[in-house]
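Hi Q.,

Before the meeting this afternoon, I wanted you to have the inosinic acid prediction in hand. No need to reply - just skim if you have a minute. The sequence and ligand are here:
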Amino acid sequence: MFDSGTTCLVVVGAQWGDEGKGKLVDVLAERADLVVRYQGGANAGHTVVIGDSQFILRQIPSGILHPRVTCIIGNGVVLDPETFFTELDALDARGIGTAGRIYVSDRAHLVLPYHKLLDAASEKSQAIGTTGRGIGPAYEAKTGRRGIRVGDLRQLDCTRRLLVERVDFANRMLELLGSAERASLEEHLALLERLAPRLLPISADTGLLVYRAVAARRRVLLEGAQGALLDVDHGTYPYVTSSNTTAGGASVGAGIGPTAIDGVLGVVKAYTTRVGNGPLPTEAPEDEAAQLRELGGEFGAVTGRPRRCGWFDATVVRYAVRVNGLTGLAVTKLDVLDTFAEIPVGTSYQLDGASCDELPAEVDALSRVRPSFEVLDGWRASTAGARRLADLPRAARVYLDRLEALSGAPIRYISVGTRRDQIIEV
Ligand code: IMP
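Predicted structure with the ligand bound:
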């Protein structure tokens, strides 16, 4: 979608995450100068397959796999420094040099070990099914004005004093939550001492870097994590993550004004998955779900948890088109449906006996909706080798046309396999 009219493009998930954004970003990053992560943290798991190698990136933008691209971790991200450096070292060990082309916002908040302890303790009572990466507690601390930011490492003396208060607060919270765990001040102090000399040289006012790139009409790709239905405002609250995963979050989390953005690509699977708890209206019966899970390799990239599987839910995607202002869709994993004789598509909902075209706000109502399904013919042929629309079986094209009509945004990409080249640009 990068062309003369679009130089600053957001890529977001338009379902519950795991839509295949990593692959799309990887394909688009070939034409980008800058790739920016703007929200979430090490809860994301972007999988990219290059040749025989598989890369799973949690904290670093997938754009890093292109040697020409500069990568930025924006202010809206919560940075898990240990995961970040482990990934950097692993990339370097695999010959993917990162020196001089990765910057971290000095305004990004740090995810520290006590956030992970708090995440685990909260899960005992809330049962959201989080990734356990400390994401919620880190964002809570940010809005509660108790966070520690990357830039704070510049004044290590003050930050040490701050840390004493933070660790004490975390330990009181752990006690309140009934956890026997306690955070160690010494461990946290040592971590910050270790981090500062590595993190500070690559920390920057990254909003300025993005602003300058946009002003120079360089190609900027804003890489979203998770999906619209996990957005803290627009998702299936409270079964959501703690950041704004929708396109509005890209402006805030990258530190640029919304007028800088001129395209938003929403990534959807040709069916639907969800990890963790919360409503999933088009969830398939277990025999069908197991088939989708097996064929699609639907196991969490971060936690390894089996994903819940169901059919394409057009009500969800229409909603995602609206709340993100999507200008295009990328449909991924079409090949996973290759063997099905019939493929149901959820077109709208019934709620308490009345038809319902929009997503209800309350989780309770969303748990009661019954999807109305339309059943389309399968194509029962491999799509893995298709590189143009015309290469697809007729029934697959009918299926995609129907998804497009029901969703209300044009399909711009179709992915038919995990490899970089298995993509159709429409
Ligand atoms: P958290 O982001 O770890 O707090 O988890 C909150 C919810 O978001 C849980 O249901 C997670 O399974 C889900 N979640 C977080 N990150 C991802 C992701 O990258 N893909 C899919 N689900 C995610």
